[in-house]
Design goal:
With 343 residues, the protein is α+β, with helices and mostly antiparallel strands. Strands 1-2-14-11-16-9-6-3 form an eight-stranded mixed sheet. Bound molecules: 2-oxoglutaric acid and fe (ii) ion. 2-oxoglutaric acid binds next to strand 9, strand 11, strand 15 and strand 16. InterPro entries: DIOX_N (IPR026992), IPNS-like_FE2OG_OXY (IPR044861), IPNS-like_sf (IPR027443), Oxoglu/Fe-dep_dioxygenase_dom (IPR005123).
Length: 343
């Protein structure tokens, strides 16, 4: 066996299977169909049964995505010391980072985080009593020189897709289309460039360990290498999501789970690594304003279906989560079930 840092090694029960289960893939939805009723019901079924789906004819131009992907490839090809010049730190959570931990195991990857609103307003600390806010801006590398432009263009395009999706999700829950829109006015949305280098021990490590996305919605591009696995709701089996050219993979995050009072659950996923090929992926995390108090919507709860969660503050929740990804902590990080109302 190749020598690798033990911090990357997953516990036996969380190690990936090298045989791939691709049957019964996640639903593929064509966003260009003119029958809105049908589209809404397809989205609703996919959110309920899988928490994940792929979309085609989504309106994001291939050339904006290609431009950002190329910028990502040239950034990651730089010497480590160049990349470390834009490293994230305890104060600025945006930029380059290569020691992220998911559930306290190190991920076999490098990331670069870009905040969509520039500046972005966030709480200064995870402490619930600390009301101080900070304004943060992106730190961008000198090279490639078009990195900022590539991010800005891509952000505008994917943002439009996010609104389309959140409106379809609202309709599928029987709500007015714009029910969620105001939460995203001063969004804390973020684009991440993931790079998974080839890994000598793909049976022991993961590119990203199993996790649920904490935000509202994720719009993910994965390249043709593939490696994303989704936990199937019916039987808990890990299902590989086969790369489909020009498709985006969409998943609902914890916030939609809470808003919908568990009707749409945020589903666990992970990324496998590969002994020969490097892999790139680009998630866009569509997240509300930091001050949002996340709770089941009163339009979706009543005496028969009482709220299953207590309200929590998104900004503080996210700060807590990101702190635990930054450093290996002794305890488990914050999760939405900590806000579950006990029966
Ligand atoms: O790279 C992937 O396929 C998944 C990445 C992911 O789940 C994440 O960054 O939250
Ligand atoms: Fe994720």
């Amino acid at each position: 066996m190749a020598e690798v840092d033990p911090s990357f090694i997953q516990a036996i029960e969380h190690r990936p299977k090298l045989t791939v289960t691709e049957a019964q893939g996640i639903p593929l939805i064509d966003l260009s169909i003119s029958n809105t009723q049908l589209l809404v019901s397809q989205i609703g079924d996919a959110c309920k049964n899988w928490g994940f789906f792929q979309v085609i004819n989504h309106g994001v131009p291939v050339k904006s995505r290609e431009k950002l992907l190329l910028a990502s490839r040239s950034f990651y090809a730089l010497p480590k010391e160049e990349k470390l010049k834009v490293r994230r730190d305890e104060v600025n959570p945006f930029g380059y980072y290569d020691t992220e931990h998911t559930k306290n195991v190190r991920d076999w990857k490098e990331v670069f985080d870009y905040t969509v609103e520039n500046p972005t307003v966030l709480p200064a600390s995870p402490d619930p009593d600390d009301k101080e806010l900070i304004m943060l801006v992106n730190q961008l590398p000198k090279n490639p020189i078009n990195m900022r432009e590539a991010f800005e263009e891509y952000a505008q395009e994917v943002k439009k897709l996010c609104y389309t999706l959140i409106e379809l999700i609202a309709l599928s829950l029987g709500l007015p289309a714009d029910r969620f829109n105001k939460f995203f006015d001063n969004s804390t949305s973020r684009i991440r460039l993931n790079h998974y280098p080839p890994c000598p021990v793909p049976e022991l490590a993961l590119g990203v360990g199993r996790h649920k996305d904490g935000g509202a919605l994720t719009v993910l591009y994965q390249d043709e290498v593939g490696g994303l696995e989704v936990k199937r709701k019916t039987d808990g089996e890990w299902i590989r999501v086969k790369p489909t050219s020009n498709a985006y993979i969409i998943n609902v995050g914890d916030i939609v789970q809470v808003w919908s009072n568990d009707k749409y659950e945020s589903v666990e996923h992970r990324a496998m690594v590969n002994p020969e090929k490097e892999r790139f992926s680009i998630p866009f995390f569509f997240n509300p304003e930091h001050s949002t108090m996340v709770e089941p919507l009163n339009d979706l709860t009543d005496d028969e279906n009482p709220p299953k969660y207590r309200a929590y503050n998104w900004g503080k929740f996210n700060m807590n989560r990101r702190r635990s990804n930054f450093k290996k902590l002794a305890a488990e990080n914050i999760q939405i079930y900590h806000f579950k109302v006990s029966k």
